[in-house]
Amino acid sequence: MSKSNKSNKSSKTNNSNKSAKTLTGRMAAEINEDVHNFNQSIIEDRYLLEVDIMGSITHVIMLSEQEILTEEEAEQILNGLGGILEDLSTGKLEYDYEAEDVHMMVENLLIERIGDVGGKLHTARSRNDQVALDLRLYARSEIIDTMNSLLDLQRVILEVAEKHTETIMPGYTHLQRAQPITLAHHLMAYLEMFSRDESRLHDCFLRTNFSPLGAGALAGTTFPIDRKMVAKQLDFAAPTRNSLDSVSDRDFCIELGSCLAIVAMHLSRFAEELILWCSWEFQFAEMHDSFATSSSIMPQKKNPDVAELVRGKTGKVYGNLMAMLTIMKGLPLAYNKDMQEIKQPLFDSLGEVQESLDIFTPMLQTMKFNKENMRKAAAQGFLNATDCADYLTKKGMAFRTAYRLVGELVNFCIKNRCTLDELPIEEYRAKSPLFERDIYEVISIENCVKNRGIIGGPAAKMVKNTIRLVKSEKFGKGK
Ligand code: ARG
Question: If you measure from the C-alpha of residue 128 to the centroid of ligand 1, how many angstroms do you get, rounded to a whole number?
Fold first, then answer.
């Protein structure tokens, strides 16, 4: 099942007769079952199980090195945790939906397996710094996965663009035909977006990469723990600097959610264009049959459902970001249970974006582009009008005058149902003696593209150059 589906917290925990396993001590009565269901985070916590155990292993090693636990105690606990990890990786571990959260589940399991010494695991630690640690560890690996999926998509964009550096198509503003470009140039615009997304995630990684463990519940601990050692063991840049902030900070979740919202926005724009291009009105492209769906009633239909869903899921990813921002708004320092609610929207966004990327890439890779129709569309709509005005401007006429004059020529063409290329030289010269026969060459659609060889322009030479550069920067040897 997909992560996004799994992270839906609609189902209640298993309401069996067994009493809920919760902390007792101060409270004389067992927790009310509905309260348990309301309070738990065990459903979302599935994603944190592995990192939670890794964090605990590191914690125990540190406690032993600092002689807070004896070597023997540490060994027993490490063996127990190792066994749980092993069972998890072999699929033998039974997930305990009755535990309040993953931290209690692992601790309960440990005590069940190795006895009371398991209760020493939580020495010098709170679930508050533990969950902060788990979330950072998990976010870190998810960031890397998302960056890799973004790289895969960029690789495919380069691959398709490389085949279409000479494929002329209309460029649009206001969804009106504007100036001729190439398909490669258009696709490479998306490469820029996804490349920025990748670097944004990288920045987010850098801010996520600090270890909060040792912050305790809020004010650290009196035990002589070694926070630097824990940070180093878990590959963090350093320990966090303020214990209150360490347990109450979810900026990295919101920042990640925001990076994901921008990725989704880019995917959605791209999806929208592909949907348009696959329409009968455009006929610029066609989805591979394996990425399209049909209608239950209209036999002729070939629908771009996948692209539409990518576009639709963007709404959820935006909503998740807003949810996270709102959950954190107004929380006094330090930890508050509200923060547990961050997990579901974060995990949902991670799942949706990951799935969208992973389906979008092969969809793009297998699409067919209709060069002829793109070229035909570029011939209609006076896409060379700017070049016509520039022609006069280069001969000394003020651009604004040339602009007006060419506007009049376009009007004339519309009335006479012809294109600027078909307009007789006499009509041109009647407007301005600056026009000569070479105007036809200057306004040929191919030359309109070719002559835009400036940095960032659509000319094949320039786009090929960019493709080569990006390829060697991102995918060159040793990358
Ligand atoms: N399940 C909690 C969460 O996800 C863990 C921290 C609980 N801390 C507490 N003091 N109740 O945020």
Answer: 6
Q: Which of 208, 277, 258 is nearest to 236 (CA)?
A: 208
Q: How far is the CA of 477 from the centre of ligand 1 (A)?
A: 45
Percent of the chain clearing pLDDT 70 (strictly above): 95
Q: Please state the pTM of the whole predicted model.
A: 0.94
What is the DSSP code (8-state) at residue 176?
E
- Dump pLDDT digits (tens) for 209-226: 999 999 999 999 999 999
Which residues are bridge partners to 170 per DSSP?
A: 180
Give 472-479's long-range contacts (Cβ < 8 A, gap of 24+): 474/151, 474/154, 474/155, 474/195, 475/151, 475/155, 475/158
Q: For tokens 């990076």, name the residue.
A: 259
The reply to whether 89 belongs to the active site is no
Query: What's the Rg (C-alpha) of the chain?
Result: 30
Residue 122 CA to ligand 1 center (angstroms) comes to 14
Cβ of 327 closer than 6 Å to ligand 1, yes or no, is: no
Q: Is the Cβ atom of 41 under 6 angstroms away from ligand 1?
A: yes
The finding on whether 129 has its CB within 6 A of some atom of ligand 1 is no
| 95-150 pLDDT per residue, tens | 999 999 999 999 999 999 999 999 999 999 999 999 999 999 999 999 999 999 99
Tell me how far apart the alpha carbons of residues 210 and 438 are, in angstroms, rounded to a whole number: 65
pLDDT tens-digit map of 237-289 = 999 999 999 999 999 999 999 999 999 999 999 999 999 999 999 999 999 99
355 CB within 6 A, ligand 1: no
Residue 174 falls in the annotated catalytic set: yes
- Measured from the Cα of 40, ligand 1's closest atom is 1
